[in-house]
Amino acid sequence: MLTNPVVVSILLMSVLCLMRFNVMLSIIFSAMLAGILSLADFQVVHQIYQTQGFGYEMLGVYWQTLEKTMKVFIKGMSGNLEVALSYILLGGIACAIGRSHLTHILIYRVTPLIGNHKSLFCLWIALIACFSQNLIPVHIAFIPVLIPPFLALMNRMKLDRRAVASALSFGLQAPYIALPFGFGLIFHTIIRDSLKQNGVEVTLSDVASVMWIGGVAMVVGLFVAIFVLYAKPRNYIQTRAEKRNLQEINVSMDGRDYGVLFGVFVTFAVQYFSDSLFLGALVGLLTMIVSKGIVYDEVNEVMDGGMKMMSFIAFVVLVASGYASVLQEGGSIGLLVNETAGLMSNQVLSALLMLVIGLLITMGIGTSFGTIPIIATIFCPLGLALGFSTSAIILLVGIAGALGDSGSPASDSTLGPTSGLNADGQHNHIWDTCVPTFLVYNTSLIVVGVVGAVWLNG
């Protein structure tokens, strides 16, 4: 199992990221390694080595494998092309908001309500993030719009942004795990359909009656992050503008501010009714230009600012999609599941290994929604063979799919928080978002998932 291309490539990606190596390059190098390990014909390589030793012909085989890997990788990048372009357009909207008075007004109105209560601020952020998944399902579109205006307030409170990253990640993940509304309805439907396709008959109500346990695990992780791990003050560099008294800020709105605000509402409305983040962002930007929220002569400056803010995230999303295609093309994921199945001797160990497999897969491909159909093909017959009840199988498949969404460098649940919290360049994607969310949420999900599966099994 330790030599499986999925395990080896994800370990390489994790080590490179933790060494502060560029995230995008880390994913690309890991994808290339996974491709060579899974797509190369090692029987041919062995025959060449036996007859000719190490030489140009053997290198030629590896070079051909690398070329094949690159083709699969580049073709797979198209899977997230619309998402990447949407993020660039959202960056333009966020930049337009930053150039208006809305940021000052928002800070002025919220500060008296929050005071200096850091934990209250984090819980409020978590609540807003929850709404983005169920009530108004705009996913991470709100983060580059909402969070940057509050960085000055966070700096004054000396609030550790790792706590805010954890709050945002909670709101992006917990609702779809636990509640069958919005994105949660999509997630629960995928669980139901995947289980049915693999011989486990369940309904949406069956899924919802179990997956609340995953929500409990997320709440535990949120409280640990806010009240224990990241409760201490942390200093950030403040600009002169941030140090001014808030009462000195002019909070009156002009026509340009109303144009930008109207564009924001249009963005969310179009995205909601069309189910297209790209279309919502495009129409929102056009609305801001027509309503003069963005002055025509400043369109280039606004879009340049949006590119600087979101281009990194957009390209990471693209290469993550290519990485997922390489893993799936080589069949390494199925091999990993089959190899691990042989190690399962009792229900506690089996539940733990199932969840670890889900963690590895989601860490690699960056999406819990895409992990469910992959693991259900093996987990369902395996769970039945091991004597797990239907409820326990639902929980194991659901949590195994969700594991890794928090903590993966390529996941929306980490890229989204970083896009807002790093607006001033003082928040590291790996050490300030990925590592904290990985620790608090994946740990709690694994523990609660194992205990919950055994409990549901009676």
Automatic annotation (TrEMBL):
Keywords: Cell membrane, Membrane, Transmembrane, Transmembrane helix. InterPro entries: AA_Transporter-Related (IPR052576), Na/H_Antiport_NhaC-like_C (IPR018461), Na_H_antiport_N (IPR032813). The keyword Methyltransferase does not apply. The chain crosses the membrane at residues 6-39, 84-103, 123-151, 163-190, 210-230, 251-270, 276-295, 307-327, 347-366, 378-403, 438-456. Its main location: membrane. It is a multi-pass membrane protein. It holds the Pfam family Na_H_antiporter. It is found in: Cell membrane. GO terms for cellular component: plasma membrane. Residues 169-452 form the Na+/H+ antiporter NhaC-like C-terminal domain. This is Sodium:proton antiporter. It comes from Helicobacter enhydrae.
